[in-house]
Design brief:
Helix content is 37%, strand content 21%. The chain is of the alpha+beta class. It has a five-stranded mixed β-barrel. A two-stranded antiparallel ribbon has the order 6-7. A hairpin with a 2-residue loop joins strand 2 and strand 3. Helix 4 crosses helix 6 and helix 6 packs across helix 7. The longest helix has 24 residues. It is elongated. The termini are far apart.
């Protein structure tokens, strides 16, 4: 099988080829894996290890600028020997982004150019609907289509009740030539500017919110005419789902504007302290 055909199987499309045309002296490659600053690449020349150029490293502004698994990159294949050198990352059609692990507020691209994200969750004691909602929101925001895969049904006493709890379910067989990007061992999956994904994941709440009396309603129970709270009171919207929505919205807002969020939080506690002080005097 020719290497050009192999690249087609690895997702090389006419769109990618068009983007690569302006780098006539470089070879278009796709990143297969990453290990401590080096990348395993596939191109029409075969497979090879590569690393980013010094100029690329110097120009990086954020962690998300670095190449990720699934990226199409333009490289100097270095036919004389040694590692290939990555000079450019081509525009991504989708990118699965999370908050980088640790305390530093940075985004990290887990994988790029994905068509479908398979979200696997077991039906045993590890089943957590709130966590699944978080994953679905991030998946929608990546530009890919999320598919929930529920596993270990034989270890669940009542799998039907769990199925009823999930936003949707789908069993998909990978077609011949399909690709799966696996990210095992992920310790945390923090939100990163996933507003659109949250809107799609909680479309039922967003639809209710349009009927609230105030456009900036927080649905916390303090504003009159809140259609969301009314749906909770009627039993149409589970309170846990609303709390999950509010938690993810707050987390996403924190990521988008850390300083503004913290200033607002400090002011909130100052106001509470003032009220408590007045009450003590009274």
């Amino acid at each position: 099988m020719g290497n050009e055909i192999i690249m087609r199987q690895y997702g090389l499309s006419e769109t990618v080829e068009k983007l690569a045309e302006r780098f006539a002296d470089l070879t278009v490659s796709r990143i297969l894996s990453q290990e401590k600053g080096v990348y395993r690449l596939i191109s029409s020349q075969g497979e090879k290890w590569g690393e980013i150029s010094g100029r690329y490293h110097y120009d990086v502004q954020a962690k998300s600028d670095y190449p990720a698994v699934g990226d199409f990159v333009m490289v100097d294949w270095n036919k004389s020997g040694g590692n290939a050198v990555i000079h450019y990352v081509l525009p991504r059609k989708s990118s699965f982004i999370r908050k980088a692990a640790g305390e530093k507020n940075e985004e990290q691209v887990v994988a790029a150019n994905i068509d479908t994200v398979f979200l696997c969750m077991s039906l045993n004691n590890d089943f957590n609907l709130r966590r699944l909602e978080r994953y679905v929101a991030i998946a929608w925001n990546s530009g890919a289509v999320p598919v929930v895969v529920l596993t270990k049904g034989d270890l669940c006493e009542n799998p039907d009740s769990k199925l009823i709890e999930v936003s949707s379910r789908e069993l998909t067989l990978l077609p011949s030539g399909g690709m799966v990007i696996d990210t095992p061992g992920m310790r945390e999956l923090g939100m990163w500017d996933a507003g659109d994904g949250i809107d799609q994941t909680f479309s039922d709440i967003e639809k209710l919110a349009q009927k609230c009396r105030f456009r900036d309603c927080t649905h916390s129970g303090s504003e009159p005419g809140c259609a969301v709270q009314e749906a909770v009171e009627r039993g149409e919207l589970p309170i846990d789902r609303l709390r999950s929505y509010q938690k993810l919205m707050n987390e996403n807002r924190y990521v988008k504007d850390t300083q503004g969020y913290l200033a607002e939080k400090r002011q909130k506690f100052k106001n509470i302290a003032k009220i408590n002080k007045r009450n003590r005097k009274g």
